[in-house]
Amino acid sequence: MLSVLRLWVLAALFLFVASRESGDVYANDPNVYELTPSNFDKVVHRSNYTSIVKFYAPWCGYCKQLSPVWHKLGKFLHKEGKYGVHVAAVNCDKESNKPLCAAYRVQGFPTLMSFRPPKYAPGKAKANSKHVPEPYNGQRSLKAITDYVSTRIKNYVDRIHGLKGLPEFLEGQGPRVVLLSKNTNISPVYKTMAIDFLSKVTFGYLKTDVAEPASVTVDGKKVQLPIEEGDTLPILLLWDSEKGEFSRYSKGKLTNKHEMEAWVQEQTGVKPSEGGLSKKDKKYYAKYRGERVHDEL
What we know:
The structure is a single chain. By secondary structure, this protein is an alpha/beta fold. It has helices at residues 2-22, 40-45, 61-80, 98-103, 142-150, 166-170, 188-196, 257-268, 279-283; strands at 33-35, 50-56, 85-91, 111-116, 132-135, 158-160, 176-181, 202-207, 215-218, 221-224, 235-240, 245-248. Helix content is 31%, strand content 20%. The strands form 3 sheets. A 5-stranded mixed beta sheet has the order 1-3-2-4-5. It has a 5-stranded mixed beta sheet with strand order 6-8-7-11-12. A two-stranded antiparallel sheet has the order 9-10.
């Protein structure tokens, strides 16, 4: 009788471990999308964000080794950095997911793949537009993957060539945001802000070595930039074409995308189409992550 009981306990333990081994590893992670055939296109292909997807099997040793990195990647890109990148995973051991894994020719675990969106064109239909898949074969460290996906974020920021080029940028239609920075490269955070307000607010980037008082002439009117002696870069400005004046972001360092986007929304009355402040995120995207419903510029 005792031996039968032991066999029963061992069998139950085996089934418990097996069920744990086959479960969705990221189902409870609020920063990682656990994707299936029913939501893959919604998250990956119906967004202007780039996606980085881990195709995995729960029993795979290499997948388990990568799991802590993937959790950290999701936390940094989604929660902390708020980059325009979806961190996602597909459990290829699930029978219902196998056709999806086969469609992307997944032959080993883990397979990492980025999906970069097509260039947005106003008025152009996106129904058949698919993001371009690209295998990632680089180092599987947090820094290496973060650096890689940062280069895959689409850029919709207009470069402004000095103060002489600022009036031409300001004369365009709709609200205008300008970042003055000494850095040559546009940061992932600022690129993401341009994506979040795509086709609603235009973002410009003016590289300058110093912050000093200056004025520009817009539509024949001389306009002073809200910059004083002793100010330091970077500086974020918003142009109000109706008032013919600038507003300046003054809520601290330019590291919190959520606060900066809330400021843009407050100043313009325009809500972002993507990102944490959008209806799209709250209504659709949040339910596909574990949550159920900072980078210097």
